[in-house]
Write a structure and sequence with these properties.
Elements (H helix, E strand, L loop, with lengths): L15 H6 L6 H9 L26 H4 L8 H5 L13 E4 L30 H11 L4 E4 L4
Parallel strand pairs: 1-2
């Protein structure tokens, strides 16, 4: 069953926190370099709309807010850090832990899973839905739900 997304149009502008912290969007040249890995690529050979690159969602306390001038990192640099958990035949299980139950000590957290338009209506998918999604996305791996929360 398909449902219609009721979200307002997507925005590609920076969040208020990003603007307040001094974050500045990347130029088209920088986006081309990061997307292609080549500093000499011209926009006419790149098939994607550069205006479709979303600005990062900068929230209070994020690293970008703390130091918006920190040098950027390309996907290749991130991948080459060497701290990745490589998938092997012996390491091919993705374990999913369900969120803990909310008891009376932290009852105010109940509101975190409700939309602003429909208070008291949970909008968080069940953990089984999340596991099913991850199984489809990480199809080369096993995805297991941990029984203990």
């Amino acid at each position: 069953m398909s449902t219609v997304c009721e979200h307002s149009p997507l925005t590609f502008s920076s969040s208020p926190t990003a603007i307040a912290s001094g974050y500045r969007p990347y130029s088209n040249r920088q986006l081309l370099t990061v997307a292609t890995g080549c500093t000499r690529t011209t926009s006419d050979v790149f098939t994607h709309d550069l205006n479709a690159f979303p600005a990062p969602l900068v929230l209070p306390g994020d690293d970008i807010e703390g130091d918006p001038t920190y040098p950027s990192q390309s996907f290749r640099e991130w991948l080459d850090l060497g701290v990745r958990n490589h998938v092997t035949s012996g390491r091919n299980v993705l374990y999913v832990a369900a969120a803990p139950d909310i008891d009376s000590k932290v009852e105010h957290m109940q509101d975190w899973q409700c939309s602003d338009t429909e208070p008291n209506t949970p909008t968080v998918p069940g953990v089984e839905s999340i596991v099913a999604y991850l199984r489809a996305f990480y199809h080369v791996m096993e995805v297991e739900l941990l029984q203990q929360r």
